[in-house]
Amino acid sequence: MTAKEPVPDNLQSMTDFQLIDALRNYLWRRRYAIVLDDVRSVNAWETIKYAFPDFNCGIRTFFTARLSNLAESIENTSHVYELQALPENEAWTLFCMKAFKGEHKAVCPPGRDVSEYLRRLR
Description:
The two termini are 33 Å apart. The protein has helices at 16-27, 42-48, 68-73, 88-99, 115-121, and strands at 33-36, 60-63. The chain is 36% helix and 7% strand. It is mostly helical.
């Protein structure tokens, strides 16, 4: 939605099908890109794909999934890129950079124990 278009008042009370219909009506004849992160099943995609009308005018859908066979099973898949997991120390560093970016130059708690930090946030 743009700043000029208010979000529907009843958004919180809509059923899944009403949300899909509202999104489809909003996207009708528009160009858009959709990014879905961590799609976990073909059924999840099958449920929401109807919300995204495709009129062959440059619409793009990107999604991430942990299972390569899931990506391959979704119709209209043009490219499947298999990424390797980061080594544990690089994954931890990335996590700390994102989770603690406002804390002491993104320094993680010692010993990889974030529980004390989380207790301070309460």
